[in-house]
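Example record

The entry below shows one chain as it appears in the dataset: sequence first, then structure tokens.
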Amino acid sequence: MKAFVLTGHGGMDKLVYRDVPTPVPGAGDVLIRVLACGLNNTDVNTRSGWYSKQVTEPTTGDAHDEVGSEDPSWGGAAISFPRIQGADVCGRVEAVGAGADPGLIGKRVLIDVWLRDWDNPNDLDRTGYFGSECDGGFAEFTVVGEKQVHVVDSTLSDAELATFATSYITAENMLNRANVTRDDRVLVPGASGGVGSALVQLAKRRGAFVIAMASAAKHQGLKAFSPDALLPRSPNDLSAALSEATGQGDVSVVADVVGGAGFTPLLEVLQRGGRYTCAGAIAGPIVDFDLRTFYLNDLTMTGATIVPPGVFADLVGYIERGEIKPVLAETYPLKDLHKAQEAFIAKKHVGNIVVIPD
């Protein structure tokens, strides 16, 4: 089969399109023909070596010369090469291994991206990521355990379905960690990205008042998800901008995947007892943090990476009931993954970019 293989940490040259053996399902596994696969920041960060603590700059997709093969992936352990990346698969089950349900053959499915020890599925230390700790979906076929597979009943296209997995379960996990309800005012920086646009939709689904932050050029696209207010990406005075747009200069929740220089203003607009939840740092992982803002205002801060069991099944339900919309920005043939990732890194789009095997 054709696949894009990551041969090491570095630039785009480390992603090589070539023939590799078609995987064979083992006991309890299913073989999936990949119909479409979405891109996400983990692909870029792992390829470039950005997860290394030696790297302090924003996510750019450039190779980091100081990163060696021993540097960690998202989970704090070195990734093994070669590796086929790509987590957000919409596919069709082609075959099953011993003990797996043959009734899955022919079904269109989504893949839960979090690999678990099913004897203890809540053990965070025994959790992996599809396309990182095992081969993923930037290929014509992929293999995954039967328990990772969720049949989806939807009229959405393959490419539209491939926009959901990582972005939406990341967003739902952030909102769960922050205990967001209809009583909250939720501020979403980076609202035009995959996770950001998912946060807007999923927080609105809960009945919260949602304020989306993005560059003015992307506001029209964001209106499709009905945020209650839209703010510029980096207002000079965030509290004043909130007051002008909503009549109130603070919020109860910040759901952030941006970080960088905008971190301090975000904390300063959290009302007393507010919650900050984070699942990314695309504008930079190193921030200024005044502990007095944190403890004098009784704030709660949560990180959100590994998603608990059950959240993916919830997501599939939201899709099937039409409670959330796909945000498909663009599609590329799999052979043009370099171009797709360059467009993804440029961040000129709203939503998600997807590649489709030839």
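Notes for this example: The radius of gyration is 20 Å. The first strand starts at residue 2 and ends at 6.
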